[in-house]
């Protein structure tokens, strides 16, 4: 038996074969030792492979999400046959002697810049597509393009790293557990693994030769074991049975309130990024969706769906939640959730760049489509809209004015729209400092502790080497939460937490004492948190753990 330690992202035990995904980011080499003709042959072969991948993705998307959603993969195939694009690649190979991968990316960027500058909004949105498809071809050429395994029996997947888009594309029914070599606890990929509720570890130095071998992913102990001894396997199976028993016990709390022994109630919502997540949220007794990460709809395909597609998904989520409130956060693309072509050129500091509300106010054509889709979905059940990455009052006022303009437009067109509450994410220090004024503009606040931590402590949440410095339990972050709650309540504004910290049972008592109205957590964390809250007694003179 061999063991590799890791950091637990999602607790639980998985037993099954290990499936190693052999893809590593390869440096893109500009120059080539091959002749332009040889590089061209490689390029055309890679295009053929990319078209085959896209045809397969089209078929799957057609089954799962319908023709409208699948259409994007058809468009990508067409772009790969575009004469102008192919000619630009050939020209780069012949005149600059570059590698095929470099030429694919460079030609993609050139066309994306052209598309971005066009008047027509349809053509502008093709900018992201041409970059995406060029990246696919370059990945195939550099060896990173081996697709994530989608076939075969259920397995524990081991990968060097995964982008949020790749995590979204995983087939959950075949995934027993997830192990990555690199990744941080608060990255969006980790958040997605938690949302799926599958046991997951990061920081595991697995061996590629372990592919296909029997394995145990032990989230409780933070390790991956290969060729487990029979005794160890028996002990793990016994723990797995206990965990199932405990899950059954927790199910009894599904329809009970999250109320302390002395009668203080807090609502527990779930975070979601898909219709599947919404179903899990309901199944786990969430009182609603406290954060629907709408950008997740874009990450799997690398493009932004239009109004009709967004409306169809939001409506499905709202209907799945059967009368419970759904908070739809407007597109929070940017930083690690990169959508090529959204805000123009590559950025030096994407985490401080055109992300969240900044991208929406910059690309109002896309923002309007989304606001219209949200308003239309609100005709089917309780919906709130929430704006991410707010730092200034004017951003909220401008976003609200656009929301009202969209409502008026829908009314004039005779299209049904429902009422929506308006909330903002408090995830920048500026929003905390401005909380009094912002509370006058918003119906509710949702504190995004993941970003609030990185921006307060000036420590990249994506960098696993900085975890010690990027501590969401830092007194500065906890004081900001307290300050935000107090300021919000002085203005009759509700306040909750939707960052990962909200699920920490050790802080639940502090959050209750701070007066938070709600916590929004991964679906699998709802019932354990409810159980913990129901065991608390705030009338006892306990000292809060924070500060
Ligand atoms: C946060 O920043 O805490 C948050 C909930 O948003 P995201 O993790 O999607 O950036
Ligand atoms: Mg955030």
Gross morphology is globular
Q: Helix- and strand-based class? A: alpha/beta
Number of helices: 20
Number of strands: 16
Bound molecules: phosphoenolpyruvate, magnesium ion
Which percent range fits the helix content? 40-55%
How large a portion of the residues is in β-strands, by DSSP E? 5-15%
Q: Reading side by side through the largest sheet, how are the strands ordered?
A: 1-8-7-3-4-5-6-2
Mean residue pLDDT = 89
**How many angstroms does the end-to-end distance come to?**
44 Å
Unreliable stretches covering 5 or more consecutive residues: none
- Rg: 24 Å
Major sheet attributes: 8 strands, mixed
Overview of this protein structure:
- The chain is of the alpha/beta class and 547 residues long.
- The chain has 20 helices and 16 strands.
- It has helices at 36-65, 67-79, 83-96, 100-116, 121-142, 164-169, 188-196, 230-251, 275-283, 296-299, 307-320, 357-362, 364-377, 393-413, 429-433, 435-441, 449-457, 475-490, 505-514, 526-534; strands at 2-5, 7-10, 13-21, 155-159, 175-180, 200-202, 214-218, 223-226, 267-272, 288-293, 325-329, 383-387, 420-426, 444-447, 494-497, 518-521.
- Strands 1-8-7-3-4-5-6-2 form an eight-stranded mixed beta sheet.
- α1 packs across α5 (121-142) and α13 packs across α14.
- It is globular.
- The structure holds phosphoenolpyruvate and magnesium ion (MG).
- Phosphoenolpyruvate binds at residues 191, 291, 293, 332, 427, 448-451, 498-499.
């Amino acid at each position: 038996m061999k063991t590799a330690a890791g950091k637990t992202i999602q607790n639980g035990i998985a037993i099954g074969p290990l499936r190693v995904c052999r893809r590593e980011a390869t440096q893109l080499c500009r120059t080539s030792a091959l002749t332009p003709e040889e590089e061209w042959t490689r390029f055309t072969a890679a295009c053929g492979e990319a078209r085959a991948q896209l045809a397969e993705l089209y078929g799957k998307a057609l089954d799962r999400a319908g023709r409208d959603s699948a259409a994007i993969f058809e468009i990508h195939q067409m772009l790969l046959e575009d004469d102008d694009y192919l000619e630009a690649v050939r020209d780069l190979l012949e005149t600059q002697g570059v590698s095929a991968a470099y030429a694919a990316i460079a030609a993609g960027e050139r066309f994306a810049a052209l598309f971005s500058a066009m008047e027509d909004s349809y053509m502008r949105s093709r900018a992201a597509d041409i970059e995406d498809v060029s990246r696919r071809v370059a990945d195939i050429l550099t060896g990173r393009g081996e697709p994530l395994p989608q076939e075969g029996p259920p397995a524990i997947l081991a990968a060097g790293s995964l982008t949020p888009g790749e995590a979204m594309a995983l087939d959950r029914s075949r995934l027993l557990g997830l192990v990555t070599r690199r990744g941080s606890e608060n990255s969006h990929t980790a958040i997605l693994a938690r949302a799926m509720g599958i046991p997951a570890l990061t920081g595991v130095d697995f061996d590629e030769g372990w592919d296909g071998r029997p394995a145990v992913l032990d989230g409780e102990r933070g390790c991956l074991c290969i060729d487990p001894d029979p005794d160890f396997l028996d002990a793990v199976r016994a723990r797995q049975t206990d965990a199932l028993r405990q899950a059954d016990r927790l199910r009894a709390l599904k329809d009970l309130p999250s109320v302390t022994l002395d009668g203080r109630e807090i609502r527990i919502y779930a975070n979601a990024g898909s219709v599947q997540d919404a179903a899990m949220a309901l199944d786990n007794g969430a009182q609603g969706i406290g954060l629907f990460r709408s950008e997740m709809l874009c990450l799997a395909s690398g493009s932004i769906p239009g109004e009709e597609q967004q409306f169809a998904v939001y409506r499905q989520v709202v209907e799945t939640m059967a009368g419970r409130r759904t908070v739809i956060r407007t597109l929070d693309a940017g930083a690690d959730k990169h959508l090529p072509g959204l805000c123009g050129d590559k950025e030096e500091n994407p985490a401080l760049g055109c992300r969240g509300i900044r991208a929406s106010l910059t690309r109002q054509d896309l923002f309007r489509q989304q606001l219209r889709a949200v308003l239309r979905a609100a005709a089917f059940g309780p919906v709130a809209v929430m704006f991410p990455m707010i730092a200034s009052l004017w951003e909220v006022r401008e976003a609200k004015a656009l929301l009202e303009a969209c409502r008026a437009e829908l009314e004039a067109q005779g299209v049904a729209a429902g009422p929506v509450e308006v909330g903002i994410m408090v995830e920048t220090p500026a929003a905390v400092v401005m909380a009094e004024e912002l509370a006058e503009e918003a119906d509710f606040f949702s504190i995004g502790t993941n970003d609030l931590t990185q921006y307060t402590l000036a420590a990249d949440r994506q960098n696993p080497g900085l975890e010690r410095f990027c501590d969401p339990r830092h007194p500065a972050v906890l004081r900001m939460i307290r300050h935000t709650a107090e300021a919000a309540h002085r203005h009759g504004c509700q306040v909750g937490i939707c960052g990962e910290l909200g699920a920490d049972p050790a802080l639940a008592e502090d959050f209750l004492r701070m007066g938070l109205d709600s916590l929004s957590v991964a679906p699998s964390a709802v019932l354990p948190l409810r159980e913990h809250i129901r065991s608390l007694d705030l009338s006892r003179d306990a000292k809060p753990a924070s500060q």
